[in-house]
Amino acid sequence: MNNLCVAHRGFSYIAPENTMAAITMAMAESFVQWVEIDTQLSKDGIPVVIHDFTLNRTTNGKGLVKDHTWAQLQQLDAGSWKSRAFRGERIPTLDEVLKLSCGRLRLNIELKTKGDMYPGLEQAVMERIAYYHMQNDVVLTSFDTDALRKVKELNPNFPTGLIIDARPLDLLERLKELRCSFLSIGATHLDSTLASMLVSAGITVMAWTVDDATGMKRLASINPEIMICTNRPDVWGATFLEHKQSFWHWKSQKRD
Fold first, then answer.
1. Is residue 255 a part of any domain in this protein?
2. Is 8 a catalytic residue?
3. Residue 1 binned pLDDT confidence (cut-offs 50, 70, 90)
4. pLDDT in tens, 175-224
């Protein structure tokens, strides 16, 4: 099983998603080479790392992320909802995550936006990535096709990826039109035919979100190029080690 492990919002099974704790815990697993995070803008234009458009689920705050300044967001507790052990975890800035990850991890950064919700999001995010010279270690993904087009307008060479939870017949044509080299797709929509077609077309494929060993093994059997996005890097690690041990046992039996 050679499929790359992508930690979904960090090690989000144990730690509060999209926090420095979750990303640090993911980094502690030697086999985690990628982390997926989500970014939006504060009211004063600072890229921050949080999934929901509202603060309600993952912080002790209320209301829309975009209606709060960074100073206000910084005061919120983004950890207690998960566990008392993470009380006091904050919403991180994208800068904090990039600084921590630089030279150590690659990032799938989802642009969380819809319509004209976040004017300037793409440019703000790309400027921070450029500051840390991480253009070759990041892919910008989104459900929002206008956001992907904006990235290409700003820098035609910046890698982008469409996020989709479907299997449209014209998927490859859509990716070509958007100039995407990456696809983030719900795992249930992938089979060997689709995976082979995408990989042959030069598309990097990431399947989400798979937390069980059976699902991981299914994806691995379909194509070794599929990246597996999971809240459970620990399950990925155990599954990989089991596969590796079985392989070497088979090799030793053949030698005997």
1. no
2. yes
3. low
4. 999 999 999 999 999 999 999 999 999 999 999 999 999 999 999 999 99
Backbone angles phi, psi at 236, to 5 degrees: -55, -45
* Distance separating alpha carbons of residues 196 and 207, to the nearest angstrom: 14
- Structurally, the chain folds into a number of domains equal to 1
Establish if 205 belongs to a structural domain: yes
- List Cβ neighbours of 37 (8 Å cut-off, separation of 6 or more): 9, 10, 18, 23, 49, 97, 107, 108, 109, 110
Q: What is the CATH number of the domain that holds 147?
A: 3.20.20.190
Rounded-to-integer distance, Cα 33 and Cα 26, Å: 9
Task: Please choose, from the candidates 207, 66, 185, 41, the residue with its C-alpha nearest in 3D space to the C-alpha of residue 126.
Answer: 41
pTM above 0.90, yes or no: yes
Looking at the domain assignment, is residue 52 inside a domain? yes
CA dist., res. 162 & res. 180, Å (int): 7
Q: In whole numbers, what is the pLDDT of the chain averaged over residues?
A: 94
Give the position of tokens 């989709």: 164
8, 68, 243, 249: which one is catalytic? 8
Decide if 133 is catalytic: no
Give me the domain span that covers residue 182: 5-250
The DSSP line for 187-225 is: GGG--HHHHHHHHHTT-EEEEE---SHHHHHHHHHH-TT
Residue with the larger pLDDT of the pair 96 and 251: 96
Asked if residue 87 is part of any domain, the answer here is yes
